[in-house]
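Before relying on records like the one below, remember that each one covers exactly one chain. Contacts with other chains, cofactors or solvent are not represented anywhere in the record.
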Amino acid sequence: MTAQNTLNPLIRKAREEGWAEWIATPNDERAVLDGCRIETTRGPDDAVIVTRAQYVRDFFEKFLRLSKGQWAGKPFTLFDWQWHDIVVPLFGWVRPDGTRRFRLGYLSTAKKNFKSTFGSGLALYLLVADGEQGAEVYGAASDRLQASIIFNESANMVRASKKLSAILIVRDSTKHIAHPKTNSYYRAISADAHRNEGLNASAVLFDELHAQPTRKLWDTLRYAGAVRRQPLQLSFTTAGFDRESICREQYDYAQGVLTGTVPDTSFFPFIREATADDDWTDPQTWAKANPSLGLTVKSEDIANELEEARRSPAKENSFRRYRLNQWTQQADRFLPMEAWDACVGTTNPADLEGKPCFGGLDLSSTRDVSAFVLVFPDAETTTTNYDVLSFFWVPEANCEAREARDRVSYRVWAKDGLVTLTPGEAVDYDVIRRDIKALGERFNIRDIAVDRWNATQLMGQLAGDGFDIVPFGQGYASMSAPTKALEMFILGGQIRHGGNPMLRWMCDNLAVEHDAADNIKPSKKVSTERIDGMVALIMAIGRATANPDISSSYDEHGLVFV
């Protein structure tokens, strides 16, 4: 007898019992053949009741109260999609021995679809109502702050429930909720604080798995429930960008389980996302990634963010990840060139003499381009504008080979006064020092931000020349805020760069990298060609916007320089 012949009567029986609609994938069919089923009963009106899943829904509605937004103080009533697509299959399916079918799961939607809130309620259910003596439930995240999100909402739910607060003890300082009667507890742990192994987890809930810096915490917890009767490990996450991460590994595995190419009946996949072929501007596409559209997610909010994303490649990346749940590349093109070209302005260097300005110096490699950019805040108008002067140095020797590599003509730019060719095969730092000293005599340079790498000697020399030198890191902490500020100024028409073609070429090359918190920084690794002038510009913007003596619309937009 073929497998299909065996399966057909089982499916007919499932229809009679009212649960055939949850046999939706090849792995569901494999599970049926293995003897798995969804337990059902009939209610007074002959309605089908999925008994084990209904127990979860009853717990949410009877014991849990929401604490935020328009639902604050109201019972936690599951949305239809949460009930039908998650709770029923996840808790309704059982194995022949009566335990849960699923052991591992990947649940992914766009932001603001109640993932963390649902996880908070689920953590409490698994703590007190899952029938597990000595339960150990862990809420795992990338850092302490993220780990606190699910915990804090769980703690609020406990305090809002007379029945739960009577049996549970909340310890906010240690992010711990104890159930003394069953010797059980729920605890929040994070990748940046966790040091222990040897845990005996009955359930693990990973919040925003895409933000895990490494797979270490995942690997520690993956088999922490090996001796449990029906351990459960779930990941709640939005799409990421790192194709080598544990999150991408789980995403790919979940897709394989959905299609049936990965034969795993114990893995629960739930993914709501827009595909690469979808029109990202179409509201119907938004609904694919946002099952709570119209409930916790407003179409008008997405529409507003769409308009910003249309104008900014960097914001398009974020829009696709957070609103459409699409995996993106780590780096993306940064600025639309039409916006850059619209900011040419009519800057006259002679008009800027004596005005306060801030410098950014990127020395790069001694064999490549070095750049110095001055930024002049003009706070005389309602919105602060920024005049930009840029200066470049390139080694003269082998200039022809360097032009062939970079596909630009440094010698033509040198004739036009846009770049200084220094003698020899390596850029001459003495020439750079001489030229900056001369600029200091013309302009009121308040301070100069310098990349600390390979610049120690020149930094000391410039400081000896009377300049205020500020070491400036190249990581996310230092670069994200001024990079975002530059984008805002360009899109807002607040930059006047004078149309320098060398700086324009570097702007066209510029790509930025993102981290899990949506911080950004320029990436010399993935940018198409030289971007040294743009790095120097961003550092100068950082100093200009950080200076308390210069008023800036930067602060009005809520950006914080670090």
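Residues 551-562 have pLDDT under 50 and may be disordered.
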